Predict the structure.
Amino acid sequence: MSFDLVLFGGTGDLCWRKLMPALFAAFKHGTLPPGARIIGVGRDDMGDDRYRALIESRFQSVEQDKRPNSDEFQRFSALLQFVGMDLSRPDHYGHLRDKLAQRQADTVVMYLATAPDLFAVIAEQLALAGLNTPNTRVVLEKPLGHDLDSNRAINQTVGQVFTEHQIYRIDHYLGKPAVQNLFALRFGNALFEPLWRREHIANIQITIDEELGVEKRGAFFETTGTLRDMVQNHALQLLCAIGMEPPINAHADAIRDEKLKVLRSLKPWTAVTLVQDVIRGQYAAGRIAGVPVPGYRDELGVSPSSNTETFVALRTEISNWRWAGVPFYIRTGKRLAGQDARIVVNFRPTPHAIYNAQIGAANRLVINLQPKDGLELHLLAQAQDKRQLSRQLIPVQLDLDFDKRFGAERVGAYERLLLDVIEGRLNLFVRSDEQVEAWRWVEPILTHWQSDVQGPRLYASGTWGPSATSAMIARDGFCWSEES
Ligand code: BG6
């Protein structure tokens, strides 16, 4: 199968941080279709060779194990080509048409890794240039829009040019191995299903901690913030994967129908919950791994009086028969004390205690997304010693460590999703109605913040965020998993 991938934003941050390493990994694993072309699109008119040299230099800042050696790069770079275009100029789309006309690829993927306000323009211009052929697929990066209206406007314009089954809205968290495994755990086994409900689950905690700050993306982040960057998409998709009903089959729409129902069932915000159940924070100067780092307001491209949030913690519920009354907590932020992501399912304690034991970290399923991925089942066990004298129950852990079980060299999130686009599998992509519901649910928070004079709570870099986060969960009589 011949295949052309056109990367709009071909010189941008996402391209070299995530997409090129993922494409190189697929190339190395032998899963890129033979004869694939990767066509970077950017403003500079640099030609293929300079583009290859640029990508090679950018690979230097990628983690060592994801970086090609010079021989590998030589072979990989033969796939790379470049088209210089000003995306707002209709005549420039002719350059791309000429490039694509050099051969008739079986599948053409237009990957829009640009600012979302360009999506509609690009889609329209592709149509005018006759490049929205039936064998074309379009990938839209997040955030798709800035709010409900802009999301709808983009989806409407792109929807006039491509049919829904040609549109791949990417959320790379759905490509993470642990998330796919969560689907397998829930829908490939009968074991947890009877327990997966309000009668047996006390609360669910979704945490995405980042040590990194906004890096060179200050200007982007200023108008985005953590709610739009992480919660509206990644965290809510994780919540859907945990909360959805079993789909009737494994087809894309069956899965997406069930995720949509979860998003529609999220408890609406009230004037009270907007204040009590949502915390926004912003990092101040501090230390990460002993190294001093500046506060958000001192980052490049950021206003010294910025109120943009770099941390969000919130509490919500899914209002349906399965979940009514079970709190779902979401917590994510930048410049925190660690870099990890996990979902913790806390089961209810035994109805009657016959042992005198502290439950602590037991009765819990942990789905680790990163840096290590896998599953941990925390239980209480009778402590054993050689004289069998112990009467103590202690917390123990059953581990499924993916590295140990499947080997460390596995398909990463972007690689998985790019291969799915090539093969036309929509299961792990987001449908437009899911996005609309997610925006509808976060919008009252954005509106509330506009008139909230308090602004974000400052937290020192290298800590776990504002202390109010612990107070929020304590109101329900719970604590964050690492505090128990
Ligand atoms: C991106 C956000 O979608 O996800 C970034 O725009 C964030 O701000 C990144 O750093 C986190 O992804 P991962 O896979 O590194 O957890």
User: Anything to note?
Assistant: The mean pLDDT is 94. The CA atoms of residues 225 and 309 lie 5 Å apart. Residues 174-412+432-483 form a domain with the Dihydrodipicolinate Reductase; domain 2 fold (CATH 3.30.360.10).
